[in-house]
């Protein structure tokens, strides 16, 4: 009885060593995450500059592309499944949506948003007006 258990554990260990990415991908849910998920500029209307790291899992084996909405050109494309990532420097002046789509289709399978925030909001007063008194 102990021999069968040892062989089963050894066989399972061997499978985990030989095919770890495939086994992990089968158990992974669909997700798309970004870190950080907020970009902060000093004043309202200014562009914020941030290095963003996107991580996602796509368990279905297809051709996918990663987009910054509303751009029609993808940031990257790939074929396959599993856990992947993308790192880049971004210049954002407003909150921006990022999507993973099936290649050659306008179908979004995953989506996330990077919010842009400001430390100081602009005043409604216009300081360029002339004053006589």
From TrEMBL:
Pfam families: DUF3019. Keywords: Signal. Residues 1-25 form the signal peptide. This is DUF3019 domain-containing protein. It comes from Marinomonas phaeophyticola.
